[in-house]
Amino acid sequence: MNLRDYLKDLVDNLYTCARTQCGFCVYECPVRRVLGFETYSSRGRMHLARGIVEGNVGLTEKLVDIYFKCTLCGYCEAVCALDNTRIFRNVRKFLVSKNAVPRIHREIRDSIVSSDNPYSAERRAKTPVQVLPPRKSKTIIFLGCTIPISRRQILLSLKKFMEKSGITLGYLGPDEYCCGLVLYEIGFEKEFLEQAEKNIKSFKESGVERIVTICPGCYIALKERYSEYFDVDYEVLHISEYLYELMNKNKIKYRKLSGEIVYHDPCHLTRHGKVVEEPRAVLEWLGLTVLEAPHYNKYYSRCCGGSILSFYPDLASEIGVMRLRELLSTGAETIVSGCEICEIALDKAAMRENVFVDVLDIVEVLSTALS
Amino acid sequence: MDKEVLKRVYSKLVELLGEERVSVAIEDRLPYSRNWNPCTRDFRALPDIVVLPKSTEEVSQVVKVAYEYKIPVTPRGGGTSMSGGSLARGGILVDMKLMDRVLEVDKENYVVRVQAGIPILRLNEELRKYGLWFPYDVESKAVATVGSVIALRSDGTFNIRYGKIENHLCSITVVTGTGEVVELGHRKTLISTSGYHLHWLFISSEGTLGIVTEAVLRVVPAPPHRDIVGFFFPSFSHGVKALVDMLKRGVLPESANLQCKNRLKFYTHAYRAKYGVEPKVPEWTEAVLFLSFAGDKDVVDFMMKKSREIVREHGGEPIEDREVLEMWWTSKHVAIEPKELRFPWEKPFIPFKQKWPDSQRTRRFGAAGVSVPVGKIQEMYRKYLEYSSKYGLEVLGMNVYFQHPNSTHVSISFAVWVGDSEEEVRNFYRYLKEMAKTAVDLGGSMSAYYGDGEVLAGINVYEHGNALKYMLKIKEVFDPAGIMNPGKKFGESRWVE
To answer: In CATH, what class is B3-95?
Structure first.
């Protein structure tokens, strides 16, 4: 199969982009801002995809690098009308089919396949049953891989939230599997579908009707990506949407907090998931003043580099530093986000810049209001 | 380029900039192969090498290498040229976008010094922190750089108040075709009678004399308030007379656009998307005039009221549907501005549904951008309808941009829909050539906002006659080896027969 077979109708998008050449996506692309060449911007990758379709570009290491370095943040889509990231994902799928994939991406796939997480951690490390015993319920929390392995403070805050509020969510424990979004984004479709099937089977067997996620990656996988392949009948909420619902119905008793925070929009939650106002509303109800990164917020938020942190740490770190500076320019001393991977990326950026700043998840903020 | 020479040039450039900012890879070169001018599906113009300088000194070193080996140098900003102005003919393509720093904001003197690769929108985001504004608002502002608006003398939304780039350009730093760095102009002032004003030569020079690397620009305090009005007129002449009368009577707009009914449709897609119908336009309408005013609210309100009175005296009628006005404004001007740069009523474009790509799904926007004396607009419009029909091109519409402070000197975009086939592209350039010559015949110019580029190169002898010979001599002074953006302004058009 050639790229045209993977893109199908999307080939038209490539020619529309070539006709338009508006360049709205070029300057702001976080990867182009670091690496400089237009080829690393959305318009560049669209030109290049056209080059592959027309047979002017071979499958070189350089080409692979260009497509896999994209953070898929989707800023380009917000300023466009084309399906840019869908095209780039399909190019990746095509590259996977030709075995043209960087080593680190293959290793991460292997880690998910063998250990059910992208971090080569032990399987049991991502099912913290001693903190959160498995419990059947129609509404469950889907923890994902990153929180139990690398961001346990969120897990503890979640536990505290459940204890103090009396609202208990179910948890599948060892029957929860890696959502596979990383595989989907890289283009390992077969392996992604295996993860999806396992999870869907678990949800069905446990009678799950509503799934709450803290990780926006899991949110997008369960809500949008699984349904591209399977009939699913559960509802998916990001924790911010769930808390918004509870607080709107006065189901949580909390003490008011005070102070200013700046909210960082996670790309997967905001641009891909279109969840924009709920996290802000929750933070405001908690009594906080929510500051916005100047110019670049909501649908036009800039990426923190988190999605390529495991693959290209240096590039991700440069992107993270640029975002951190914008967030800190508001004068806030606390950054709140709705994505644990963004929080890790911003923490790393703060360390690199030697800046002392609290980077918290919305769940952590909530838990302080419950003490 | 000869392979051996390429090898040597590449290694010299790598020595200067490092491997990460020099590339000969096809993957890096291909994205630079197009501009916005109509072309066939498979068109590409490739440079041999792409470089990413970060300073004037680095640009100078790059050009010195090019001069030594006599190879072409093509500077590039956002790559949205409508005349193929940054299409390479082999050689070195200099992508200026890493030269995007604001070097100095001089609040007291209302000037800024910037690197030329900064996009206009980015500059305004920075200036906002100081309450300042660079009012040279080109529609491609998200990616169009300061260097490119100098090199093209582009149109701007607010030019009926602030003028084209010459009204903003105090001085520039340039790298000539030998790699020499020269400061041109008058430091931080627009006013001087000393020497020759060589910085003006670089305005619409399209990189043929050298590369502008830094610029000192006048900026203004951001206006406190803005509002818009729109009017229907039975003809373009009616609209022009009303505007002349307004200027005479001291009603001074901040922006003015006069367009035909067809062009209006291009800017009201948000209205159609919302209501499923076209905005109501009276049967008798030929032209639609949109004005904006800026200043204190009471001043703006007064001007708005007065403009309505004057328009009525000239047979026009105001557009009463506020939504039409606002949606038009969104599409025409605001488009991508972040909230901080907009007034509360100025709506952003709908995220994920930007107008441009959405409108170019099967054919593209192609325009003859000419200027004619204001009394000839009506005649030029007739010619536009005649030539577009002659070459089988569907009319997209015409828009008159008032581009000179408090006057009616105009730039006009006569747009048509162009397909990707060889025949359609050929026909477009035939149309363009006839429009260009007609504009000159009517006492105007064949190019009003996109330079000559590759499109009008050679054709422009029709406008300049033996003056072109003197222009070439000037080029030789700055670019003795003829390496700076070859094929633009001089030589034979790649596009027009």
So the answer is: alpha beta
* Strand partners for B218: B111
Token pair in block for residue B294: 């800026």
Q: Is B358 a residue whose pLDDT tops 90? A: no
Among all chains, which residue has been given the structure tokens 């495991």?
A310
Does A276 contact B at CB distance below 8 Å? no
% of chain B at pLDDT higher than 70 = 100
> Which residue of chain A is at minimal alpha-carbon distance from B145?
A27
Q: Which of B456, B474, B485, B16 is nearest to B212 (CA)?
A: B485
Q: In CATH, what number does B102-221 get?
A: 3.30.465.10
The model's confidence at residue B272, banded by pLDDT at 50, 70 and 90, is confident
- A21 vs B: CB within 8 A: yes
Nearest chain B CA: its distance from A51 CA (Å): 8
Determine the CATH number of domain B226-342.
3.30.70.3450
**Confidence label for B356 from pLDDT (cuts 50, 70 and 90):** confident
* Domains of chain A from N-terminus onward: 3-97 (no CATH), 103-245 (3.40.50), 254-369 (3.40.50.1860)
Is there a contact between B256 and B412 (Cβ–Cβ < 8 Å)? no
CB distance B361–A12 less than 8 Å? Answer: yes
ipTM score here? 0.95
The beta-carbon contacts of B113-116 under 8 Å, at least 24 apart in sequence, are B113/B214, B113/B215, B113/B216, B113/B217, B114/B146, B114/B214, B114/B215, B114/B217, B115/B55, B115/B146, B115/B213, B115/B214, B116/B77, B116/B145, B116/B146, B116/B147, B116/B150, B116/B172, B116/B211, B116/B212, B116/B213, B116/B214, B116/B215
